[in-house]
């Protein structure tokens, strides 16, 4: 297999309409990206895959969509106002900015090479501040949320009273977060605007270790279910220097990105810190009355927090391959799980004439009820197969003269390039069965 580099992924994303740099015609904006037609579908498919896993399969998890804008006291309670900052230094010579803990303050500037040119470290808050209302003063300052978890915590009592849930239970949410990152790098891995998929699991104190182990197991199994190569996933436990002061234990699921092993998702044991803080700052009781024991307590929380945008980059990096075929030809292919692929089925008429194109177009419209489809009539059939391989389409359906005679089509499988003849009446069932039984095959 060819080496998967970030340059190759970025080039493919631009060329095929997965991801573009934001405001590119104006020179772009660092740390911001636009998801094109294929990219937004891939992102939505990953989101839906996660949402189904967390809320549909688990009957003890409910959903939430909290507002991006929240009362500023939320962020005081959470510690973000006082603690969510990085010590930064600037080079006096070239004005480059760096995190103070990532460079030698007595050494040379990594950008211009000037020695002993750094300013004194100063804290830089990572939250984006804005104003609400007509007057832009200190009293109107609010923040774009830097994480989605706090919306779940402040709505904890509302969910309990309205949903008839009983501990243990979870609240899941997918949404955008914003961080004023000084150093944005590695494409969409670290950006100022990103999306998270989080679930906060509320449990009785004393049972948290059991649930922490359970959710670690569940979350790793999720990526295997997505078809991600197991050898590209690993656990990293937070050491004493990494562990947040309120956390009892924390593990990251790391993925082998093109730039090396990096965090994909965190599973954290947060104790009762968050609900206790919001009880203190709001003056509202955040305890839970256990109907079985009649005890009243503040629940402990086990958090699973995954980056949706990082999941997109993971899916692209994991799926990307360049395969050398007979004759020296090379095909670029994305081995997406069929449930994630932006296009599930491409319908390709062999020729445009003799009613074949019309037959194929009608079939493609019929398949839309069950799959994400694409109709392509342009170019040689082999070239169209390559275009579909490059965007990760798992199934191609070719309509030819025989199709008009006996109502059968050729079903071509992306990974193996195998071609089988299938009756049109069996086509939907055949594709669904192949998707359900999908196992990644690389040539």
Automatic annotation (TrEMBL):
Record's GO cellular component terms: cytoplasm; extracellular exosome; microvesicle
Record's keyword annotation contains Secreted: no
CDD domains: GlyRS-like_core, GlyRS_anticodon
Binding residues annotated for ATP, in chain numbering: 179-181, 189-194, 263-264, 307-310
Annotated positions binding substrate: 99, 147, 194-198, 303-307
Annotated localization: Cytoplasm
Any one GO biological process: diadenosine tetraphosphate biosynthetic process
Residue ranges of domain Aminoacyl-transfer RNA synthetases class-II family profile in the record: 7-349
Catalytic activity: tRNA(Gly) + glycine + ATP = glycyl-tRNA(Gly) + AMP + diphosphate
EC number, as in UniProt: 6.1.1.14
InterPro entries: aa-tRNA-synt_IIb, aa-tRNA-synth_II, aa-tRNA-synth_II/BPL/LPL, Anticodon-bd, Anticodon-bd_dom_sf, Gly-tRNA_synthase/POLG2, Gly_tRNA_ligase_bac, GlyRS-like_core
Keywords: Aminoacyl-tRNA synthetase, ATP-binding, Cytoplasm, Ligase, Nucleotide-binding, Protein biosynthesis
Predominant localisation class: cytoplasm
Entries under PROSITE patterns matching the protein: AA_TRNA_LIGASE_II
NCBIfam families the UniProt entry points to: glyS_dimeric, PRK04173.1
Similarity comment text for this entry: Belongs to the class-II aminoacyl-tRNA synthetase family.
Subunit structure as annotated in this protein's UniProt entry: Homodimer.
Function: Catalyzes the attachment of glycine to tRNA(Gly).
Protein name from the UniProt record: Glycine--tRNA ligase
Taxonomic lineage from the root: Bacteria, Pseudomonadati, Spirochaetota, Spirochaetia, Spirochaetales
């Amino acid at each position: 297999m060819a080496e998967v580099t970030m340059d190759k992924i970025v080039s493919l994303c631009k060329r095929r309409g997965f991801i573009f740099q934001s405001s590119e015609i104006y020179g772009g904006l660092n740390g911001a990206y636009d998801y094109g037609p294929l990219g937004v579908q891939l992102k939505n498919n990953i989101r839906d895959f996660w949402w189904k896993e967390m809320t549909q399969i688990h009957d003890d998890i409910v959903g939430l969509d909290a507002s991006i804008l929240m009362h500023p006291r939320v962020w005081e309670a959470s510690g973000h106002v006082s603690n969510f900052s990085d010590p930064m230094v600037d080079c006096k010579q070239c004005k480059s900015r760096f995190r103070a803990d990532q460079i030698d303050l007595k050494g040379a500037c990594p950008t211009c090479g000037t020695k002993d040119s750094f300013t004194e470290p100063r804290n830089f808050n990572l939250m984006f501040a804005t104003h609400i209302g007509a007057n832009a003063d200190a009293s109107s300052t609010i923040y774009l949320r830097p994480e989605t978890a706090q919306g779940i915590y402040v709505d904890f009592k509302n969910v309990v009273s309205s949903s008839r849930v009983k501990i243990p239970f979870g609240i899941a949410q997918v949404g955008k977060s914003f961080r004023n990152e000084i150093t944005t790098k590695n494409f969409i891995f670290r950006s100022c605007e990103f999306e998270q998929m989080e679930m906060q699991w509320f449990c009785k104190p004393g049972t948290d270790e059991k649930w922490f182990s359970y959710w670690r197991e569940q979350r790793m199994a999720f990526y295997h279910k997505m078809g991600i190569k197991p050898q590209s996933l690993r656990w990293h436990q937070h050491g004493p220097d990494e562990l947040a002061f309120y956390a009892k234990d924390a593990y990251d699921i790391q993925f082998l990105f093109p730039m090396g092993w990096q965090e994909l998702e965190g599973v954290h044991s947060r104790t009762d810190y968050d609900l206790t803080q919001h009880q203190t700052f709001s003056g509202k009781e955040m305890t839970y009355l256990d109907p079985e024991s009649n005890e009243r307590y503040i629940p402990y929380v086990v958090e699973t927090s995954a980056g949706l945008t990082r999941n997109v980059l993971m899916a692209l990096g994991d799926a990307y391959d360049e395969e050398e075929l007979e004759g020296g030809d090379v095909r670029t292919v994305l081995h997406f799980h069929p449930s994630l692929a932006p296009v599930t089925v491409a319908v390709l008429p062999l020729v445009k004439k003799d009613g074949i194109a019309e037959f194929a177009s009608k079939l493609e419209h019929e398949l839309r009820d069950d799959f994400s489809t694409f109709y392509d009539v342009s170019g040689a059939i082999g070239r169209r197969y390559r275009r579909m391989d490059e965007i990760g389409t798992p199934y191609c359906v070719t309509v030819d003269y025989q199709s008009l005679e006996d109502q059968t089509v050729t079903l071509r499988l992306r990974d193996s390039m195998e071609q089988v003849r299938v009756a049109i009446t069996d086509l939907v069932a055949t594709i669904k069965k192949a998707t359900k039984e999908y196992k990644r095959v690389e040539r």
